[in-house]
Specification:
The protein has 224 residues and is α/β, with parallel strands linked by helices. 31% of the residues lie in helices and 16% in strands.
Amino acid sequence: MTKTKGTLVLFRHGQTEYNKLHYMTGLHDIALTPMGEDQAREAGRSLDGFVFDKAYASTLQRAFNTAAIALENSGTNDHLKNPDGAWNIEKRAEIVEGDSGDFTGRDKLTDPEILNYPRAYNIALPNGESDEQMVARTKKFYDEEIVPRLERGETVLVASHSGIMVAFEIAIGTKPVPTEDIWSNRQRVPNAAPVVYEYEDGKLVNHYQMPPKPQKPATPGPKP
């Protein structure tokens, strides 16, 4: 019997100014830096050959714009453009970054209040959100919106945030639910680095991070 094969591609947004400064960004709607836009272009080039049936992004511009730039540079997804040329990327609030509350815009590496704040999976940041809450909304989105598409054999793109990337790992089952907060004992989530999850009949069978694809060198012009 032929298996139904689906593919999910996830990536974090490109670099922002807050990333450069090690600030907690949370729900602050900050733009990509020029480097962040370059990272999105590189992500798109690495996805050359992927033909997406559906694209999602969080409602925050850094994720949406990363998805749009990546699709533009993939060379294989013009069918996702609207008649006006804008990209048909569905914005979803369920996959916005975890709400960092009172810590938003503050240096997570040096701020003493942030460094001394008790961190656990179920403890919310001041006037913000807990990892548990963030994972719950991500898992609901994955179970209700993504899994049915994968079961139908679709190829789906999701652009989100570093916290949501980890939340997806927990939702998908490639990372256990932590006893501590999700940032403990983990590697940094790189900007705009696509991770591919392959499914058969709705079940995960393989996952891997896409290697960057070098930009094609410009064709030299005629000699004068």
